[in-house]
User: Fold this.
Amino acid sequence: MKKILIPLLTLMLAALIITGTTFSMEKHETDESEKIGELFHTSTVDGYMLSYYLMDLREQQKKDMDKPHHIMVYIMDKDHQKVLEGKVGFMIKDSDGNTQKAMAMLMGEGFGITADMKKEGIYTITTKAVLGDVNLMDKFTYETK
Assistant:
């Protein structure tokens, strides 16, 4: 009995260690804590995944700001690899037709801009990403309250 029990327990312990390591690595790959702001939109364009995060800087700073909103887009390619090179631009149009344009900067593992979305209403956000020979266009609406 002991001859069977010891190898069986050793095998089970090894399986637990391997499984635990795999799950912890998988969690690290998709860890949301590395993102700036709160997720407010996701899209898939031509197999690329775009995740948009919004942070209202007025909540952290007690002063009036011209552009208090920080928008980040995190891009993953078709192989689920983070895209860290390329050019990303945003065009944000409010419900009155006023337009803001901004080129994003690489910040950490995403591309970010500051914008003014202080006025309540629906904003149309258009994103263009030029990633080498790949051009991605994404468009969606977001309502501020």
About this structure: Residues 1-30 form one domain. Helices lie at 2-29. Residues 2-29 form the longest helix (28 residues). Confidence is low (pLDDT under 50) at residues 18-30.
